[in-house]
């Protein structure tokens, strides 16, 4: 399970933690029954607040992807919609690239539509 | 395999000294035991005598019980075992230091405690031993081990690696402000089997009350060591690669990035799945293995289905650190 955060990103750290887990599920690197690293370990290792990590894990719990257990351990339980997760991960990657390039929302969406149209041709 | 590694044999410094000290233990075991028996007994007493290289004792009790301590045979067997283990760890100074400590326990502490134990079976020392001598025995073993540890001297260290991983090694691009951690878990049925066998051996040794505490203690420690590695956690983060036994976190071992050349993925674990001179192995079953090339010419291997991600992260860290230094 790879968990990554970037302090220079505009995205909240809790969302970044949750996205890491979603990406692992989408890519097939994580499966139901796998344990997530303890929130305390993630917080200490990545140098972020424990409650930030727990907020990320709670997002995943609310989506039915993980079960939070006593002692702040989390286990993947959800049979996540792989297509939706892959799409979400890809969209986030695209959005990050668009923001990095300084594109407006319209420009980014136009580029995405154009790419879809090109592929469908 | 991604890259060839040049052999450095950094472990050569002080190796002959550690080998001699290791080999000296069983010799001292024989010499000191015979000397002590001669001194303490003022010559061998009637009930204790040497026959064909064994110390024979007749215990005093309701019925005579003979006990044979095959001194020479045991010493030869221990010598062979120590030398074999040393040769197997030819390039691992840390293991050699443990062998030196073990040799000191065999050569210094065991003769003293063993002779006292043998004499106690006769009537010579019956009731004459200080009541707390078992405590003194434990202290003697610990002191001997510490002396051996110190006598092994300062261990040579492999030079830190500064070169970036080969360009063909898989690598995760890491941004300058990106913080990443990778965690995976492994369960080893093989280690569980070994721990079970050692536990049975410990129980068998303990059932023979005449062996004192040293043999059951050593077996018990080995059992705990194997059992601790049945379930482990691998973590890769900014501090390096850490393997933590989940039941005994205090036994965690860390490989700092300075000791790492590069990481790669192997599709299958090697045949030999135990720790050997050429590597530190935590492998189980089939499936991909994370293989990390270390500065001391050894390999660290860990079974994980996410070996590709793990290898890419290790190389990503190395690239970020070393290419920035070189720039």
UniProtKB/TrEMBL annotation, chain A:
- Give the highest taxon in the source lineage: Bacteria
Spell out the Gene3D superfamilies in the cross-references: Winged helix-like DNA-binding domain superfamily/Winged helix DNA-binding domain
Every copy of the HTH gntR-type domain together lies at 11-79
UniProt GO molecular function: DNA binding; DNA-binding transcription factor activity
Task: Tell me yes or no: is Transcription among this UniProt entry's keywords.
Answer: yes
Sorted keywords for this record are: DNA-binding, Transcription, Transcription regulation
SMART domains found in the cross-reference section: HTH_GNTR
Note the Pfam families from the entry. Answer: GntR
> Any idea what this protein is called?
DNA-binding transcriptional regulator YhcF, GntR family
Organism whose genome encodes this protein? Nonomuraea jiangxiensis
UniProtKB/TrEMBL annotation, chain B:
- TM ranges: 20-41, 70-87, 99-119, 131-152, 189-206
Instruction: Say yes or no: keyword Transmembrane helix present.
Output: yes
Q: Keyword set for this entry? A: Membrane, Transmembrane, Transmembrane helix
The answer to whether UniProt assigns keyword Transmembrane to this entry is yes
- Can you name this protein? PH domain-containing protein
Specify the taxonomic lineage: Bacteria, Bacillati, Actinomycetota, Actinomycetes, Streptosporangiales
């Amino acid at each position: 399970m790879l968990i990554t955060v970037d302090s220079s990103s505009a995205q909240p750290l809790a969302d970044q933690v949750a996205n890491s887990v979603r990406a692992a599920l989408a890519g097939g690197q994580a499966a139901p029954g796998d344990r997530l690293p303890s929130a305390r370990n993630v917080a200490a290792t990545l140098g972020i607040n424990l409650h930030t990590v727990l907020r990320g894990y709670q997002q995943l719990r609310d989506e039915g992807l993980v079960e939070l257990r006593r002692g702040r351990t989390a286990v993947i339980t959800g049979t996540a919609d792989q297509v939706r997760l892959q799409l979400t991960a890809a969209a986030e990657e695209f959005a990050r690239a668009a923001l990095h390039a300084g594109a407006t929302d319209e420009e980014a969406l136009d580029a995405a539509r154009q790419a879809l149209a090109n592929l469908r041709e | 395999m991604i890259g060839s590694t040049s052999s450095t044999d950094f472990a050569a410094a002080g190796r002959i000294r550690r080998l001699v000290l290791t080999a000296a233990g069983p010799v001292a075991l024989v010499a000191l035991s015979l000397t002590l028996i001669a001194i303490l007994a003022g010559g061998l007493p009637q009930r204790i005598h040497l026959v064909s290289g064994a110390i024979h004792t007749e215990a005093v009790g309701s019925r005579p019980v003979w006990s044979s301590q095959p001194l020479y045979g045991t010493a030869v067997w221990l010598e062979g075992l120590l030398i074999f283990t040393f040769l197997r760890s030819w390039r691992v100074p840390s293991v050699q230091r443990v062998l030196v400590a073990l040799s000191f326990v065999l050569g210094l502490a065991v003769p003293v405690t063993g002779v006292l134990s043998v004499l106690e079976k006769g009537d010579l020392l019956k009731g004459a031993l200080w009541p707390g001598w078992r405590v003194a025995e434990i202290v003697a073993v610990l002191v001997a081990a510490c002396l051996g540890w110190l006598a092994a001297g300062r261990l040579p260290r492999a030079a830190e690696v500064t070169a970036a991983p080969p360009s063909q090694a898989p690598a995760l691009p890491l941004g300058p402000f990106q913080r990443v951690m990778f965690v995976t878990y492994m369960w080893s049925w093989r280690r569980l089997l070994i721990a079970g066998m050692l536990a049975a051996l410990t129980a068998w040794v303990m059932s023979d009350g005449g062996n004192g505490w040293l043999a059951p203690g050593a077996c018990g420690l080995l059992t705990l060591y194997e059992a601790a590695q049945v379930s482990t956690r691998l973590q890769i983060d900014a501090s390096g690669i850490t393997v933590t036994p989940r039941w005994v976190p205090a036994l965690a071992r860390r490989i700092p990035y300075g000791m790492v050349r590069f990481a790669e993925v192997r599709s299958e674990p090697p045949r030999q799945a135990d720790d050997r001179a050429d590597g530190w192995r935590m492998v189980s079953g089939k499936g991909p293995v994370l293989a990390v090339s270390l500065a001391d010419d050894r390999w660290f291997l860990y079974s994980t289905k996410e070996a590709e991600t793990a290898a890419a992260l290790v190389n990503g860290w190395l690239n970020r650190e070393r290419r920035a230094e070189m720039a």
